[in-house]
Design goal:
The complex is a heterodimer. By secondary structure, chain A is mainly alpha-helical. Chain A has helices spanning about 5-20, 25-40, 45-55, 60-70, 75-100, 105-130, 135-150, 155-175. Chain A is about 75% helix and about 0% strand. By secondary structure, chain B is mostly helical. Chain B is built from 7 helices and no strands. In chain B, helix 4 (about 60-100) runs antiparallel to helix 6 (about 125-135), helix 5 (about 105-115) runs antiparallel to helix 7 and helix 6 (about 125-135) runs antiparallel to helix 7. Chain B is elongated and about 80 Å long. Classes of the chains: A mainly alpha, B mainly alpha. The interface of A and B includes residues 1, 4 and 6 of A.
Chain lengths: ~180, ~180
């Protein structure tokens, strides 16, 4: 059974689709409804998530997101969402790094986190860039496959190496789309 | 067994089957009418036990972990619903077969009781469904195994095996009796 995807990811994908069709006003409206929906479910919204990640990774995604919404700037909004996705992926990979050191963490819990990191990649980066940059996306997919294997085998050093490889690839292949100053 | 004069199974056995059907129906109705409430109960119970479900404090990871608990809890309730109906029906057929054998009354009673014990087996799925949010899937499964699957599922399996053997032996005996010297 495929695991459910987080509401945040689902809605971020919806917002990106609207932005790709240059429906900026609808995308901004959608962001507003996401905030409401997540709050009613007791989950942090887009801005709150961005602020939390900014604090953890010393980035300025929340500010960029707010500025892009205020200016109704499609390109900046897309960039903020890609950057937020990147940080959300990084957060999952950092969780996995910690989990791989801890023998008490069950394999299925590790799998949930790995699948989630992969979901962020598949739904946002692969969906958007799969056709435009197939070679790079395919290479990153293969790295994710190997990371999945490392997680299963609980091979922490191998995972760390692949994690660095993946973040470097994401930062270099999507440098034009991501905000500057994101951590590797 | 003579199809023309089929004997009814013991009344208590039929009642036990009907009760299991009733529980199956009730669980089906609950799933249909209170699906969201069941999910909310499972999520809240799991959320109150972060160590059991290895919650991380990261919102999206925990959301997936909690949704999995809710999904699995509902899935086990659905299994209970299906097994209750299936086992109720199969047991009713088995009790009818036992009632219509040429076994001695004592053997028939013992076999009927033995088969009817198996009716408790599906409650193992209900135990998992209710226990999973509180103690995790592995522990809930172990509890169900200890309380229901091994004793009653095992008893059912053995009862069916015993019925097959006794029935086959009786058939052979009948053939021998009917064979002219």
């Amino acid at each position: 059974m495929r695991q459910p995807i987080p509401i945040l990811l689902d809605r971020m994908y919806g917002v990106l689709l609207l932005l790709e069709q240059s429906k900026t006003a609808e995308a901004i409206y959608q962001i507003g409804t996401v905030e409401e929906l997540l709050q009613t479910k007791g989950l942090p919204g887009l801005a709150q998530t961005a602020a939390k990640l900014d604090q953890a990774y010393r980035t300025t995604v929340a500010e960029s997101l707010g500025a892009a919404i205020a200016a109704r700037d499609t390109a900046r909004l897309k960039s903020a969402i890609y950057s937020l996705t990147y940080l959300l992926m990084l957060e999952k990979l950092d969780q996995l790094t910690a989990m791989l050191q801890n023998r008490d963490v069950r394999p299925d819990t590790r799998k949930v986190v790995m699948d989630l990191a992969r979901d962020y990649f598949s739904h946002i980066f692969e969906e958007t860039f799969g056709r435009r940059r197939p070679a790079q996306v395919k290479a990153m997919e293969q790295t994710l496959d190997r990371m999945d294997g490392a997680v299963r085998q609980q091979a922490a050093p191998q995972f760390e190496q692949l994690r660095r490889q993946l973040s470097q690839a994401l930062l270099s292949h999507f440098a034009a789309e991501l905000l500057p100053g994101l951590p590797g | 067994m003579n199809a023309g004069a089929l004997k009814a199974p013991p009344g208590l056995g039929v009642l036990a089957c009907l009760l299991l059907f009733g529980f199956g129906e009730l669980s089906g109705a609950l799933q249909g009418g209170y699906r969201e409430e069941i999910r909310q109960y499972a999520t809240a119970a799991a959320q109150a036990r972060p160590a059991v479900h290895q919650l991380t404090g990261v919102a999206d990871i925990d959301q997936v972990l909690l949704e999995r608990v809710a999904d699995r809890s509902l899935a086990r309730l659905h299994t209970f619903h299906l097994h209750s109906h299936g086992l109720g029906l199969v047991t009713l057929i088995l009790l009818t077969i036992v009632a219509n054998t040429r076994f001695s009354p004592k053997t028939r009673t013992a076999l009927s009781l033995w088969v009817a014990l198996g009716l408790l087996y599906p409650f193992g799925w209900l135990t998992i469904s209710l226990g999973l949010p509180m103690m995790g899937e592995a522990a809930a499964f172990q509890l169900a195994e200890r309380l229901f699957f091994i004793p009653f599922g095992g008893a059912y399996l053995l009862a069916v095996g015993a019925l097959i053997v006794l029935y086959a032996a009786d058939l052979i005996k009948q053939r021998r009796e009917n064979t002219p010297p």
